[in-house]
Write a sequence for this structure.
């Protein structure tokens, strides 16, 4: 009887304690990663941040720190991916954007030093560029607010050129913001935005290592992941080159619920 | 104001006076021995010094009876500035050292050496040397009696008017050893246009021009065989043998033509054809370096310094390693390498040569790709001393730096002044914004746009707007009773006109009556066709129609009924009049208010 009681209490305690301890472990892992970095072990730090992501943490702060640790380790392609993920979650983070730009400059120098001359493109349409620095939520709120104003003006039923022009402006703005919102969501783009993380990778004709080599893919280059097959991803780079890359050589920017 | 200017000029002249007034010249000739035998060598040192000014001329004496076996020139120039700018002490010294081989017995007077500077002239002492008559086996053959006295022992073809002389500082250099070649033009006459017809050709040598572009070598005067010549330095080259063996320094040739410039106005040059004296080729025997020869090696002396721009870097950052090699050899061929290490990426160095060719700077960009402490070594080269025929290693001290992931303030170790081009091409340095110390550590992120409510909310406003627009359009399209009435009335009147043209009075009046009744439906709010006369009168009055108009309308209806069955009504004039009356009544009906 006593043993049963003890077991029951233990199970109950473990059940109630599980969420808290899991959060504690994540907090501890975050602190541990920061400690590694501070003590000059960026490799260990980036590994700890990777474990956080694997544990389901999808947080701009974690991706920012992961990018910083990776860049400090010289793993610039992976750092670019991490920074892009952080910016996807928090587009207004100036520190992340500054770190990303610095990493891109260093990466460009490394590529240039290794290959002589390299031309890479960042795939970014006009509509995406317009809303790149604005969060999806902000665009949505603006969109709804403009519609509300448009309806308000419509309901006033007042006559006059100025009133009509104002109404038209609200409607057009709301419509434009709607288009931008769709652009931000990626309605107009092909595939999922991705970053090539491998230091050296070849675009292959097919999803097989024996396939014909179409050309080089550059570390840190942006690409659109169009489809997957047999552990390979078919990508199209910013300058229109396309081919199959191993999944390990590509990372998707938009991460939801820890899935990369 | 003028007075102030005078005072200023006077003060300036006072300040400048000491520099001019303290010019001192001194010239000396020294020999290591005064008695020797034919074929033996005497060492002569000619030293000229000018204090307070630069040396304008250094006229060597005629070494009659001797052949120059070796010559070296040193020009240590020291410039010192005193307090402010009022005292300038300048010292210019030139030292020529000659090894002279006696060619024939006799008593020879060497000197004097004449120097000029600061507008003054000074002469050295003379030296008396006794040469015994004993012939020495293996000595160089005496200069033929018919040949001119050889000023420095180099080959030339003497000419009273002008001749070229090629002076080689060392005719037995080692491979890579610097040998200076001077092409001197000895010209007895003043003026004339001098141009180089044939330049010095030296196959098998690396050649560097020692003349500074734009500068004009000084002209000195020298007496040969009792005749005074102006000596012009046409070319001054540094030759570095590229291979062992006999190499030839080709002869130059100049053209001395009649002067076409201002010199002719002063009697220089004169007329006549151009004179083209040519030099004599000189053979240089290049010696191979003793084996085993280390690499890299320069001939002469050398020093090597190295430095880092900082000793602590973040992992992934680049540091600059600078090494400066200086010396007397051909540094342009020097290649230094940094020893590769795991965790370090060493880029190709940026190499910059000093303006005088006496130094060479190497700058490596080194990227620490992993944290740790690194020691850079391997910076070394060797020098070869031609006199002792020995090699000496020149090493730079090892450089140590630390790479860590932590952001640290760079610590300058030694000042580094990379060239502008190196600065421009230096790779970008990683500049990260640091870690974020806290985080909400969100475990779920679902994009707002990926949720159904978002798309519902986003789609609702435009859909609602479209519905509103559509409903409005529908409402606009729905015809009102009045509009419908006007349309029907129009059709009735059209039918009446057709009936009139057809002469159908019955139909004509029926159409007019129908038009009136249908027009009344709208203001009355009910069909008027079934109303009695009184009911219609009351209804029209309720619509605020004037009594006269009511009477006229009721009378017109009765007239219409009557005319439908009367033959008199079939007259065209009557029908036109009825149509006009009906139209007038219709316009009045349109203005009626709706019956309450």
């Amino acid at each position: 009887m006593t043993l049963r009681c003890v077991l029951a209490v233990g199970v109950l305690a473990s059940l109630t304690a599980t969420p808290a301890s899991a959060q504690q472990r994540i907090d501890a892992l975050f602190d541990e990663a920061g400690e590694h970095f501070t003590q000059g072990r960026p490799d260990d730090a980036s590994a700890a941040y990777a474990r956080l992501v694997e544990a389901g943490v999808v947080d701009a702060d974690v991706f920012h720190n992961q990018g910083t640790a990776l860049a400090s380790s010289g793993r610039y392609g992976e750092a670019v991916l991490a920074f892009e993920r952080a910016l996807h979650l928090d587009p207004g983070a100036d520190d992340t954007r500054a770190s990303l730009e610095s990493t891109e400059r260093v990466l460009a120098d490394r590529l240039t030093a290794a290959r002589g001359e390299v031309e890479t493109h960042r795939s970014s349409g006009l509509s995406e560029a317009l809303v790149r620095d604005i969060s999806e939520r902000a665009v949505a709120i603006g969109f709804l607010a403009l519609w509300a104003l448009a309806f308000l003006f419509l309901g006033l039923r007042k006559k006059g050129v100025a009133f009509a022009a104002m109404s038209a402006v609200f409607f057009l703005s709301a419509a434009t913001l709607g288009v931008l919102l769709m652009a931000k969501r990626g309605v107009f783009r092909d595939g999922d935005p991705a970053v090539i993380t491998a230091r050296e990778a070849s675009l292959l004709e097919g999803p097989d290592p024996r396939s014909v080599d179409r050309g080089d893919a550059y570390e840190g280059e942006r690409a659109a992941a169009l489809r997957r097959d047999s552990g390979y991803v078919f990508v199209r780079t910013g300058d229109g080159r396309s081919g199959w890359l191993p999944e390990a050589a590509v990372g998707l920017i938009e991460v939801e619920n820890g899935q990369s | 104001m003028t007075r102030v200017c005078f005072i200023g000029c006077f003060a300036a002249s006072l300040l400048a006076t000491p520099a001019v007034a303290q010019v001192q010249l001194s010239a000396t000739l020294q020999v290591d021995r005064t008695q020797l035998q034919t074929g033996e060598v005497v060492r002569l040192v000619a030293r000229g010094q000018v204090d307070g000014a630069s040396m304008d001329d250094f006229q060597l004496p005629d070494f009659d009876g001797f052949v120059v076996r070796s010559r070296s020139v040193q020009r240590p120039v020291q410039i010192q500035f005193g307090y402010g700018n009022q005292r300038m002490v300048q010292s210019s010294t030139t030292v020529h050292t000659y090894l002279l081989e006696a060619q024939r017995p006799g008593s020879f007077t060497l000197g004097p050496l004449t120097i000029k500077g600061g507008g003054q002239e000074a002469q050295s002492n003379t030296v008396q040397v006794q040469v015994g008559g004993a012939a020495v086996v293996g000595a160089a053959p005496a200069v033929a009696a018919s040949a001119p006295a050889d000023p420095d022992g180099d080959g030339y073809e003497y000419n009273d008017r002008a001749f070229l002389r090629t002076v080689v500082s060392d005719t037995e250099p080692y491979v890579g050893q610097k040998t200076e070649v001077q092409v001197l033009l000895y010209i007895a006459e003043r003026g004339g246009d001098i141009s180089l017809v044939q330049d010095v050709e030296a196959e098998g040598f690396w050649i560097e021009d020692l003349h500074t572009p734009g500068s004009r070598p000084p002209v000195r005067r020298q007496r040969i065989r009792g005749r005074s010549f102006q000596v012009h330095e046409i070319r001054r080259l540094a030759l570095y043998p590229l291979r062992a063996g006999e190499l030839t320094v080709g002869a130059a040739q100049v053209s001395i033509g009649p002067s076409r410039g201002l010199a002719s106005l002063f009697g220089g040059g004169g007329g006549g054809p151009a004179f083209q004296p040519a030099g004599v080729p000189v053979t240089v025997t290049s010696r191979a370096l003793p084996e085993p020869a280390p690499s890299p090696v320069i001939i002469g002396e050398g020093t090597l310094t190295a430095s880092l721009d900082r000793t602590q870097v973040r992992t992934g950052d680049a540091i600059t390693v600078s090494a400066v090699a200086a010396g007397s050899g051909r540094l342009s061929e020097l290649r230094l390498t940094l020893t590769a290490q795991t965790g370090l990426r060493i880029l190709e160095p940026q190499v910059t040569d000093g303006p005088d060719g006496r130094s060479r700077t190497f700058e490596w960009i080194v990227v620490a790709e992993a944290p740790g402490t690194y020691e850079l070594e391997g910076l070394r080269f060797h020098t070869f001393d031609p006199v002792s025929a020995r090699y000496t290693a020149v090493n730079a001290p090892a450089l140590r730096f630390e790479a860590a992931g932590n952001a640290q303030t760079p610590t300058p170790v030694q000042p580094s002044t990379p060239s502008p081009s190196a600065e421009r091409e230096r790779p970008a340095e990683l500049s990260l914004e640091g870690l974020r110390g806290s985080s909400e550590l969100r475990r779920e992120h679902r994009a707002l746009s990926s949720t159904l409510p978002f798309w519902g909310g986003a789609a609702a406003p435009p859909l609602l707007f479209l519905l509103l627009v559509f409903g409005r359009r529908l409402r606009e399209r729905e015809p009102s009773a009045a509009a419908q009435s006007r349309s029907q009335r129009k059709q009735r009147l059209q039918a009446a006109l057709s009936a009139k043209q057809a002469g159908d009075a019955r139909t004509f009046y029926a159409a007019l009556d129908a038009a009136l009744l249908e027009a009344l439906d709208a203001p009355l709010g009910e069909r008027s066709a079934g109303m009695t006369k009184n009911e219609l009168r009351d209804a029209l009055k309720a619509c605020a129609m004037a009594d006269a108009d009511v009477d006229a309308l009721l009378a017109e209806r009765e007239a219409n009924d009557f005319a439908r069955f009367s033959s008199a009504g079939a007259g065209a004039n009557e029908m036109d009049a009825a149509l006009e009356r009906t139209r007038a009544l219709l316009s009045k009906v349109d203005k009626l208010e709706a019956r309450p």
Remarks:
- Chain A touches chain B through 65 residues (CB under 8 Å).
